[in-house]
Amino acid sequence: MLENIQSTGKKATRDGFGAGIDALSAENEQMVILTADLAGSMKIENFIRDFPERYIQVGIAEANMIGIASGLATGGMIPFTTTFANFSTGRVYDQIRQSVAYADKNVKICASHAGLTLGEDGATHQILEDIGLMRMLPGMTVINPCDYHQTKAATIAIAAHHGPVYLRFGRPSWPMFTENMPFEIGKALQMTEGTDVTIFATGHMVWQAVEAAKALAQKGISVELINIHTIKPLDEAAVLASVRKTGCVVTCEEHNRFGGLGDTIAQVLTANHPVPQEFVAVNDSFGESGTPMELLDKYGLSVEDVVKAVERVVKRK
Amino acid sequence: MADIKKLQAIASQVRRDIVRQVAAAQSGHPGGSLGCADLLVALYFEVMDFKTDFKMDGQQEDLFFLSNGHISPVWYSVLARSGFFPVAELATFRQINSRLQGHPTTHEGLPGIRTASGSLGQGLSVAIGAALSKRMNKDPKTVFCLMGDGEQEEGQVWEAVMFAGHHKVDNLIAIVDRNNQQIDGSLTEVLDMGDLQVKYGNFGWTTLHMDGNDMADVVATLAKAKALTGQGKPIFIDMKTEMGKGVDFMEGTHQWHGKAPNTEQTEHALAQLEETLGDY
After folding, report:
1. Class (C level, CATH) for B4-271
2. Interchain contact B60–A (C-beta under 8 A)
3. Is A165 in the same domain as A37?
4. Tens digit of each residue's pLDDT (9 = 90 or more) over B251-261
5. Which of A41, A91, A230, B73 could form a disulfide with B18 if both were Cys (CB 3.0 to 4.6 A apart)?
């Protein structure tokens, strides 16, 4: 129920990644962690301390990191590459395409500081195209968890999943609200039941959608909120079941409106059950410096933006 | 002692296979393939310790990674002649529904191949990863990687060179095919690489030199390189070759980097290469 979804405090999703690594590392002797001069930001200090023989500092050389990870996977290890999302994807697209995806290597590409909420570093580091880049690669699994707990669960889950994975998370402290909720790769998480509209949200935008749903409930609009943490493979059955009931859709993502969750959902709807859809996403632009909340407001990703998108789409039914 | 004459005879058949694959497909890269025939024959028929019962992880085996994937015809021939897959399959090179793709890949499950290459500059990084995996698994075997000299123009190569030196990846032997040719001309004209032994040496590698078309020198130098593994440094071999070696009209020019011979040229080429193991 919507009122049961409450924040129990704030932690960064990248801390969830670090907690996931710590939970895995004691039992998984095949894990190797690589970083390109960002060990501190990636929250892998405990692993470095406890398993120095399976930690690889590559230096500022992301292309080499992806290649080494491919070779480690060839030898049967489970490499996790760690750096910021921009350097994890855009900078090394061809290395991932040839040496990981096409070569079918069991590499886990773990990326922090995705999206606008990176904040003050500005647009050079705020990649808003990475979901699109990664989901275009055949065989790539793309996961964008929404809070600390889900990122921890996702990190644990990808170690047991065979095949290349892109795991996208972020820098800022963010509300935690999924403790004890299930996590399964490729399985959408229904957070509330509703009748008037379905909101599909991913990453940090899930919390924005929770707050929007609460505001909309006050206005008499019943929201079905579904957390799409796994963008590829998409849980098409869950998407269609919800949309057949509600008849309209809002998608919410911290990504360019081109190539991300919105496009992914629209493709399924167009082919199976066309309904009105509104996109809460960055409108084909780069970001800029600012605090995370200032940036979400300026680029159309505020709670109020979600509320307005729902009000628009409901009228289009 | 290695039987140099026997290895040379195998190399002659491999060169025939290269010409016939490229001629049948009317596409592919004969020049670099012919130049590296002696090296790959020496590796697979003399130097490397491997199993043809192919397992991807290659544990307790020496591994070979081809970074300059466009010279796939030589690798396919040597793999087939070593017993990884039927020699007759060489006839499918670059054809639709083949495991012998234009550039080597794991995607179609061809035994003997452990990564995809073709987009240049990536193979040394992958070879380093495989070498580190062996180190973590206490596997004493060696990882070989062949690159082109034009490929040294890719920045990622130098990321990998720096890494291997710094991290003392001493179960790795990298070989550069120094034919001094690339698609648009000689390296001297396009982008000169200077003295690669000095460059690799400055990054902490042990460096060797060999004539890649002198089988006795190739076998001796590879043996020496293998003996130098485990001593705290990766090993680099500057391998001088002649592009198109063995086919007179293809020798020493970049013109045959990526061009197939016509019927008449194919006959002329095959007349220079003795059929020693039987054509497929």
Report:
1. alpha beta
2. no
3. yes
4. 988 899 999 99
5. B73
CA dist A32 and A78 (Å) reads 6
Q: What is the mean pLDDT of residues B255-277?
A: 97
Yes or no, beta carbons of A53 and B58 under 8 Å apart: no
Catalytic residues of A: 62
Beta pairing partners, A204: none
Q: Which of A175, A199, A220 is the last residue of a domain?
A: A175
Identify whether A105 is part of a domain: yes
Number of H helices, E strands in chain A: 12, 14
Cis? peptide before A233, omega within 30° of 0? yes
Exposed, middle or buried: residue A52 (CB in 10 Å: 0-12, 13-18, 19+)?
exposed
List pLDDT tens digits, range B165-224.
999 999 999 999 999 999 999 999 999 999 999 999 999 999 999 999 999 999 999 999
SS3 content of chain B, % helix, strand, coil (to 5): 45, 10, 40
Please tell me whether the overall predicted TM-score, pTM, comes out greater than 0.95 for this model: yes
Task: Measure in Å the smallest separation between the Cα of B99 and chain A Cα atoms.
Answer: 14
- Across the range A149-164, mean pLDDT stands at 98
Q: Classify the C-alpha dihedral B169-B173-B177-B178 as positive or negative.
A: positive
Whether residue A29 lies within 8 A of chain B, CB to CB, comes out as no
In a domain, A1, yes or no: no
- Together in a domain, A17 and A102: yes
In a mutational test of the B interface, the residue from A35, A64, A94, A162 whose CB has the highest number of chain B CBs within 10 Å is A64
Mean local confidence (pLDDT), A141-145: 98
Residues in Cβ contact with A41 at an 8 Å cutoff, skipping those fewer than 6 apart: A14, A84, A112, A113, A171
Same domain, A213 and A170: no
Do A84 and A112 sit in the same domain of this protein?
yes
Point out the domain boundary residue: A113, A143, A175: A175
Domain membership of residue A160 as a residue range: 11-175
CA B141/CA A71 separation, integer angstroms: 15
Say whether both A141 and A256 belong to one domain.
no
